[in-house]
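hi! just following up on the protien thing from before. the input was this:
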Amino acid sequence: MKKICIFNQKGGVGKTTTNINLSCYLALEGFKVLIIDIDPQGNTTSGLGVDKSNLDFSLYDLFVDNKDINSLIIESEIIKNLYIIPSSVELAATEVELANVNKREFILKNSLDKLNDKFDFIFIDCPPSLGFLTLNALVASDSLIIPIQCEFYALEGLGQLMHTVSLINSSLNKELYIEGVILSMYDSRAKLSNEIVREVKNFFGNKVFDTIIPRNIKLAESPSYGLPIMLYDEKCKGALSYKNLAKEFIYNQRRSGL
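and the predicted 3d structure came back as:
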């Protein structure tokens, strides 16, 4: 059961889009996949067609009421082999409510041990900040995937991001490593996009996935319908790119013996 955090301290880089669509394509390939939405905005939850206003329980109940994680899992009604632990806006209050709890950064990690390896992959969608919730995700994960948009401010903060990973390695999760870097929102017509691709590959080397996600209006539209891209428009450039990314991800896992 491999646990992967989709992480970048910057917002708007494609974390949720990647989480939803990579997970769905892996599920369609026969892997049993759990998505954990740890972002209080709950965009992954709603992007998979889950009604946030009609939930009995959410991840908030795990943190605050010590709810059994198994009881929070919802089976997807639209993608076979896909499961989700939904978010709720109440998650935003956990940092304050749990301020005096000892070892609070390990709550999610300890809860995931109770899943008893029932999933092949667990993907955790993080908020665009380095607070209590993101720390829980980083501590609980084996590896992280970093989406980086091919835009002007993409390289700003990469040093801080790597410093954050280094701090996690030295204190809370010594085994955490970078699974890969995904270049997103690529526009082949823009000189800047191509420059960003070169700079990111120089910075991360072979950690950068070969598959690049293009800027695509269908990718932006599909979450508003509560659908992953292959159920919204399976032939668009965005869908084909995430399908290729899933194949590349699977190849890398098998190559590394997982």
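The mean pLDDT is 93.
Residues 2-255 form a domain with the Rossmann fold fold (CATH 3.40.50.300).
cheers
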